[in-house]
Amino acid sequence: MTTTLIGSPVNRVDGRKKVTGAAQYASEFVLGEMTHGVLVSSSAAGGKIRNIDTAEAKQAPGVLLVLTHKNAPHLGKMPNDMMAGGVAAEARPPLSDDQILHNGQYVAMVVAETLEQARYAASLVKVDYTKGERFAVAIEDAEDTRYKPGDFMGQPLTFERGHWKKEFEKADVRLDATYSTPTEHPCALEPHATIASWSDDTLTVYNATQWVKGDQTVLSAAFDLKPEKVHIICPFTGGMFGSKGATAAHTILAAAAARQLKRPVKCILTRPQVLTDVGHRSETIQRFQIGATRDGKITAMRHHVTTHTSLKEEFPEPASISSRMLYNIENYATEHDMVRLNVVKPSWMRAPGEMPGQYAQESALDELAYELAMDPVDLRRRNHATIDLTTNKPFSSNHLLECYDRGAERFGWSARNPLPRSMPDGNELIGWGMATATYPGYLMGAAVNVRLESDSSGVHATVSTAGTDVGTGMYTMLTLVTAEALGLPLERVTAKLGDSDLLQCAVAGGSNLTASTAPAATDACTEIKHELLKLAADAADGFTGAHKHANEFIFNNGRVAHRSDPARSIGYAELLSLNKHPFLEAQAQTKPIFGHNDEYSFHSSGAHFVEVRVTPAIGRVRVSRIVSVFDCGRILSAKTARSQFMGGIVFGIGAALMEELTYDRAHGQPVNADLAGYLVPVHADIPEMDISWIDEPDYNFNSIGCRGIGEIGITGVPAAIANAVYHATGKRVRDLPITPDKLLAT
Amino acid sequence: MHPFEYVEATDPAAAIHAAGEGAQSVFFAGGTTLIDLMKLDVMTPAKLVDVNHLPFSSIEEQPDGILIGANVRNSDLAHHATIREQYPVLSEALLAGASAQLRNMASTGGNLLQRTRCTYFRDINSACNKRQPGSGCDAITGVNRMHAILGTSDYCIATHPSDMCVALVALDAVIHTQMHNGTKRQIPITEFYLLPGETPERETVLNRAELITHVHLPANPMARRSHYLKVRDRASYEFALASAAVALETKGQTITRASVALGGVGTVPWRSKEAEAALTGKPAERVTFEAAADAALAPAKPQHHNAFKIELAKRTLVLALEELMARSF
Amino acid sequence: MGQIATPNPTSATVSVTLRINGEERNLQLDPRTTLLDALREQLALSGSKKGCDQGQCGACTVHINGQRVLACLSLAIAHQHDEITTIEGLADGGELHPMQAAFIECDGFQCGYCTPGQIMSAVAMLEEAARQIPSHADELSLEEIRERMSGNICRCGAYPNIVEAIRHAQTIGKKGRS
């Protein structure tokens, strides 16, 4: 098969909709009789609601309904586990009791005719809380709750292989350093939003989500409906980064209110509610103890992790997920401790585990390289792993060493003088740093339908699955893969996504959807092509003359041709109409792989090389240059893939230099819960980037050879920046973000 | 947002009259502070008097300086050729503030009255003496990394957020106002702002329904040699951790006159006469600048999370002076 | 352009006329309605996005009398005399504005939520640059573009591609003028 489209830089097929404002996001669907729901958030961080007075709110103009724990409907038990096909953001149904678990928790929903009325009436709800309840929003205030969590996605978080302590104690060189990362928030630009509407016993929900099937599962459980009676629609999601995978309280409450009012209810979280009530990445405290020989062989590593979770539920940010496998370290131990805080349940955020874990590990390796007077790239080469020591399986495909080579060359790394402060430039100090990127290969499974039919202008294929395009380029990728497989031009293929009526598809998370759907789409196309050949063989007419065997026909430029005489060909549309088939349709699916199967461990990798410019007088750091090289198997859609890597790197710059959600320990609320306080990078923070990939297919993973790309970009970037800052200034910052005050401190 | 009455004023007297009726009336210009705070229920005016159509939209060059209409937008002021050339510190300060969109909206008069970004002021569930006199100050015991170190009191440590006002303080701007019965007055900007003291809810000397009509920038040859430097956690679209507005006049290597103001660190746009005294008559070199920075920050009082601002503000001031001296004129 | 039925006015509304994308639109509005909510909730012009609703992200950027401003901090009632342009009014019929085409070509977006704001901001920015520094309008440095565009947050991190798209559109514009 000649590849023409796969791997080429095609424009996003939904681009026109996005640049004209025609792309419709969840809150933008127009329904008659719309009402507006506004949530009231708790100002207390713990204790109980002593009294809630809604009298004034109910009398305010336009108010239709005020829901509180006193009158909210009873809801069914909702699934709370990825493997159950849906995840309620919180196990406890919203507004189900008077307990306050964290600041910001919703205590009421006010629904009114207009948004202005609902917002005003929400301000009239008066809540009296019990006073003097103990609560904690900082790890150091909750030491008495410290405990060891259970497994994370089937893997233990505390374990040992070999004898790390013995080897550490006798090592030539020892490093013992503690790193910390703050609470961070996905903060997608589209606030979480839902429109819920009932028609008889059918619930239709337009939801800002990354998992329509998950929402369907949760809502059908909550409202005791058959799944087919719950219809979730989300053609476009305005970013998510992990935060729209769980079905959240606002969605459930909008559906409850809509049922009661018999009118559609629209509920959009305010930006402060997004930051307070949508799960964040937990803070981490990570101690690395590393022993090595003089020539740089790491002989022992211990990685101790402390993170937080919420009062009643558990989400352990799995920060040791990469330290356990990235390097060839036989004597390794990791421990994970958690404390319970009065905060919303932490949740997935782009590269959960790898982001903070790689910041700490790759910073520690840089420190070790300085201890050993060894080039940091050489140190990593020296400890390169060819098998995954957590599973004792070989990597299916691993081109990390090539990433180092190519990255170092494109960056000009060989010119680096390792001495800190060796590159002054006027008022500034230049620094160069590097780090390894890593992310597992996940494939959570999807079923894809392809339908080929003819319309007035010719043949047209529709590829569909319930997955969502959250900005990753799913529409484009599936269009491209289907067009390639069927030999059709891109404009003859349409991708349909984001609708729970479509076939089962996993969450758009764990960088898995391309690997899950592209092979299934290709397989479905193969089946359709098989059918087309049969149609050609069956077409007893001028084309074939008589019935023949399917294997006497081949595909040629989007047409079916005689194998013996390719010039004699027929278009798909004609073939369908000759045989009086209005359409051909086929479905195929992929089975889940979570990082490894019986034979292989699946991992992507990469290397970042970063230049920073620091103004030491005022502690200002600017990233001035980045070279990143990735090994993620085969890249299907070059333009959108580059954008995914780029977005991950920008996230990494944010984590390195500015992102931190801060809580007030006296009262328990986040003090910077908006976009002026929770800083994310702006244009002026981001330089040009040199992004490339190795592009070696991993056919052990799937038939297309692609692994995911959405999350790997962020991993390693904060460490590469911190390492560059050390190179520039001689100052090692072990707690993110690297803000001016930390560089000023002596 | 609480319900309000909206009135579009057609002339200044009508605007002042409308704003004088009822205690809960406010002038409405760019709206960038007001609408934001109304959404948060921090401000709950009963009446908005729209002053956008009043004739205060021009920048007039006069023999004794420049008269800026209160409705002149931040972006127009920043890009005005004379401002760029004769008062670069003002242009730089304006362009360091907010974003292009906000600068297109924000007015000169409105920016003089910009409210603090203190998180506790902006959160109606927190104790804040500025928002609700007598309720206390959660910032003093809370997270105060962004808060003020100069001009604070036991009642309030909220930082004045404006960049423009820091430059205006360095330039000795004069604020022109109009009151009931047509009375007008001119207030030097250094007398315009009130330190929080025991009454942080009173931020300026303006009376109720007193309308800012113009800002006058006195002619000042030194202002040609002026500069604004802002330090923040991200590269743009953020409030200052520390900033400095500086202007110098030198004779040979000696500083003959200086003007210094600091932002991001004061409860009001902070003029430092102490720094100016430490610069005047001294050689224009780093030791002098450092002495001036020490003098400027001598009265600083750190809170739990913002002690770094003392050193940062000093270094910002020194770097601003160095960058200014490095420029050719 | 569809108009959403005005809900029952159960509190005091006022009659407001807005001129949007060259068309007069009459509305019965609560005076508290921001321009952004009027566009999104009353006029089905949802191209202007609500990202923060407090002037901190730029997703709601529209043009008022040719200037880029934030619709979330603007009251609809205060803009009755103004010419308002939204992303829906940028393309010339079926033909995309060069900036829109450049965003597609350079993949200047991912999720697309900040995109209308980025595009409206970028179009106005080039016009501002032409007014403010006429001699430099065609050759804004990368650094200048980034600073002037910093009021538009893209959480997906498409920044380098957005800047490339703006440069691309600038070149097209320059060719168009010469």
Verbal overview:
The complex is a heterotrimer of chains A (746), B (329) and C (178). Chain A is α+β, with helices and mostly antiparallel strands and 746 residues long. Chain A folds into three domains: 15-20 and 443-594, Aldehyde Oxidoreductase, domain 4 (2-Layer Sandwich), CATH 3.30.365; 31-133 and 188-240 and 244-277, Aldehyde oxidase/xanthine dehydrogenase, a/b hammerhead (Aldehyde Oxidoreductase, domain 3, Alpha-Beta Complex); 284-441 and 596-744, Aldehyde oxidase/xanthine dehydrogenase, molybdopterin binding domain (Aldehyde Oxidoreductase, domain 4). Chain A has 16 helices and 32 strands. In chain A, a hairpin with a 4-residue loop joins strand 4 (80-81) and strand 5 (86-87). The longest helix of chain A is centred in the C-terminal third of the chain and has 26 residues, at 513-538. The model of chain A has no long low-confidence stretch (mean pLDDT 96). Chain B is α+β, with helices and mostly antiparallel strands. Among the domains of chain B are: 59-113 and 160-218, Uridine Diphospho-n-acetylenolpyruvylglucosamine Reductase, domain 3 (2-Layer Sandwich); 224-326, Enolase-like, domain 1 (2-Layer Sandwich). Chain B has a five-stranded antiparallel sheet with strand order 4-5-8-6-7. A four-stranded antiparallel sheet of chain B has the order 9-10-11-12. A three-stranded parallel sheet of chain B has the order 1-3-2, with helices on one face. The model of chain B has no long low-confidence stretch (mean pLDDT 97). Chain C is an alpha+beta fold and 178 residues long. Chain C has two domains: 14-89, Ubiquitin-like (UB roll), CATH 3.10.20.30; 98-177, DNA polymerase, domain 1, CATH 1.10.150. Helix content of chain C is 34%, strand content 14%. Chain C has five helices and five strands, in the order ββαβββαααα. Chain C has helices at 35-42, 98-105, 115-132, 142-148, 159-177; strands at 14-20, 23-29, 61-64, 67-70, 83-85.
